[in-house]
C-alpha cells in the first residue's frame, strides 16, 4: 500500500472522531465477551454464532481484515484488477470536495465535505458487503444515514428516485481513458426514494476508524448492505432527486446481467455464474476457501423485504 493514501488532506480532528467510534466498539465488545465468559459459561458457543443487532446496524460476524478491505477492491476508474485501486489511486485528491444535492428538492445545496461531516453525527455500522462477483466482506464503516442528508434538502412530493454520480477526473484516474471504456463514465448509481430513506442506507466517510482511503471511495461513498456491492457508488460529487428511474453504470453496460434493483438474491443467478453462495474474503485459505450460503437481501430481509412486496424480483433483479 502506498503511503499517500492517508495523507490526502485529512484533518486530524476527523481521524480522531472516526477512530473514537471504533475504539469504543472494541471496548464494548471486549467487555461483553468477558462478561459472557464469566456469567454464562457453557452458553458461550451459541452466543458466538453470528448475529445482527435488532436494527441490523451491526453484525457481530468476524470483521474482514483491514488489509483485505484496503487492497482487494473494485474501483474501475483506477483499473479493473483487484489491486489496481490501491496501487493507482495515490494521485486522487479527496480535498477540497463538494457534493451538489439538487433536482426535485425544495432546498438544493452544495455541501463542503468537512462542513457536512461536522454537521452530521458520525456513527459506526458493521455491515456484510456482498459483491455481485460472489465474494463478501464484513466492514466496520463510519458515516451517517443518507436520509439525514436528504431531509436537509427537503425532497418534493414528485421525487421518486435518487441518482448519484462519481467524480470524473481523467488526470487522477488512470482507468477512465482508453478507446474502449469499460463503463460509460462517470460511474452512476441510483435508488428508489424509499430505499434511500431506509435507515440501513449509509453515506460512509470512513472505515476501520479512519477516513476512507482513496481506493474505498474517498471522501464519501454509498453503502446499501442488502444490495450487491456495485450499488455502493464511490467518491460521490452529485446527488439528484428525480421522478424517473436513473441510469446506472452497470445496467447501461449490460442490462441483462445487472439490474437497477440489484438486491442480493440467491434465487436469481447471474447469467454467467451462480449467486447461491459466496466466498468470504480474508477468511479461509487458498486451498480451503470460506464458502458460505448467500442470504436473501444479504441477511437484511426483515428490515427491507417489505420495500418490494408485490414485486417480481426475478424480473426486477
Ligand atoms: N464506484 C465507482 N465509482 N466505481 C466502481 O468501479 N465498483 C463497485 C462499488 N462502487 C465501483 C464503485 C463495486 S462492483 C463494488 S463490489 C464496490 O464498490 C467495492 O467496494 P470496495 O472496493 O470498497 O470493497
UniProtKB/TrEMBL annotation:
Question: What keywords sit in the KW lines?
Answer: Metal-binding, Molybdenum, Oxidoreductase, Signal
Lineage, top-rank taxon, reads Bacteria
In this chain the Oxidoreductase molybdopterin-binding domain maps to: 93-250
Q: Which InterPro entries match?
A: MsrP, OxRdtase_Mopterin-bd_dom, OxRdtase_Mopterin-bd_sf, TAT_signal
* Enzyme Commission number(s): 1.8.5.-
Q: Keyword Protease on this protein?
A: no
The record, for Gene3D superfamilies, names: Oxidoreductase, molybdopterin-binding domain (3.90.420.10)
Its needed co-factors are: Mo-molybdopterin
PTM notes:
Predicted to be exported by the Tat system. The position of the signal peptide cleavage has not been experimentally proven.
Q: Which residues take part in binding Mo-molybdopterin?
A: 73, 76-77, 131, 166, 216, 221, 232-234
Gene Ontology MF: a single term: oxidoreductase activity, acting on a sulfur group of donors, quinone or similar compound as acceptor
Gene Ontology terms describing biological process: protein repair
Q: Name one Pfam family in it.
A: Oxidored_molyb
Q: Which reaction does it catalyse?
A: L-methionyl-[protein] + a quinone + H2O = L-methionyl-(S)-S-oxide-[protein] + a quinol; L-methionyl-[protein] + a quinone + H2O = L-methionyl-(R)-S-oxide-[protein] + a quinol
Please share the entry's free-text remark on the cofactor: Binds 1 Mo-molybdopterin (Mo-MPT) cofactor per subunit.
What is the recorded function of this protein according to its Swiss-Prot or TrEMBL entry?
Part of the MsrPQ system that repairs oxidized periplasmic proteins containing methionine sulfoxide residues (Met-O), using respiratory chain electrons. Thus protects these proteins from oxidative-stress damage caused by reactive species of oxygen and chlorine generated by the host defense mechanisms. MsrPQ is essential for the maintenance of envelope integrity under bleach stress, rescuing a wide series of structurally unrelated periplasmic proteins from methionine oxidation.
Q: What PANTHER family would the database entry show?
A: PROTEIN-METHIONINE-SULFOXIDE REDUCTASE, PROTEIN-METHIONINE-SULFOXIDE REDUCTASE CATALYTIC SUBUNIT MSRP
| Subunit structure, as described in the record | Heterodimer of a catalytic subunit (MsrP) and a heme-binding subunit (MsrQ).
Family statement: Belongs to the MsrP family.
- The protein depicted here goes by the name Protein-methionine-sulfoxide reductase catalytic subunit MsrP
Q: Which organism is it from?
A: Pseudochrobactrum asaccharolyticum
